[in-house]
Amino acid sequence: MRWAYTFVVLVVGVLGCRDVDRDPPRITPDADVDPDHPYPAPRADLVPAVGSESTLELATWNIENFPADSDTASVVADVITSLDLDIIVVEEIASETAWAELLTRLRGYAGILSTHSYSAADYQKIGVIYRTSLVTASPPKLLFPADGYAFPRPPLAVTLTVDGASFEVIGVHLKAGVELDDAERRRAAVFDLDAFLRAQVAAGGEHEIVVLGDYNERVVASADREILAPFLTAPDQYTVRTEPIALGGGITYLGFGGSLLDHITTTAGFDARWTPARVEVQRLDRLITSYRSHVSDHLPVVLIAPR
Length: 307
Hints:
By secondary structure, this protein is α+β, with helices and mostly antiparallel strands. The protein has a single domain, classed as Deoxyribonuclease I, Chain A. The chain has helices at about 70-85, 95-105, 180-200, 220-225, 230, 245, 270-275, 290-295, and strands spanning about 5-10, 55-65, 85-95, 110-115, 125-130, 135, 140, 155-160, 165-175, 210-215, 240, 260-265, 280, 300-305. Helix 1 (about 70-85) crosses helix 2 (about 95-105). The longest helix has 23 residues, at about 180-200. The chain is globular.
């Protein structure tokens, strides 16, 4: 699990989102410790690991208006460390203070946070966290930053290099909500992403791409599938890795009885290199006490591929 390929990841979020800035109470780091590591090392045994030295783990996780409380950053660091993840695209970062604390708590990871400007007290940002011993990252770029209709939170694109090869990750957080206009805005976003990806590949640009995040869209009902049709109906171009889990009754969102809103879509170029790959939903709600109230109402989704 420690090699070097470069790829691009898109992160999207849709149905269960609110835009809230909520800085936690100030947490005082432990005294008399290394200034580079002012917090205790994260736990590596909070939940079972999914990572290994022979695989790449790429995850998306909506951490619901992060942080929920003053302990959330510590728990999230414990989860990332315990799962042994290499790359994590996160959504709903609502406090840059807590984001900085999370990165300080982690050991051997770095992070990139969206530079998109929101109001001072109302925002949810996308971020990318990656293992520095395995992954190198190019400068990030925001996609469609002027299109607030389709993308209230602009996708965050980063080219990553793992084991000497590159791929692009695009983190997305699509429009939330169940009204007709919400669905139309998600439809517009998926249409625009498809056109963007096809044009990039046709022009000889990066073709190994992962679009992951909170799509805020199901793939079970016909109306939902119509919104994601550009990805679902082009198997020569894309694989919606989370589709089989959704059709099998799996969930990533814990609200309203549960549904699968967080997706990982890969391009044919990515699939050709990283094969065979599988996707798992991590049921942290069954492993961590009061997970929903203290951490998130979404579950991490992890793509695991051999290196």
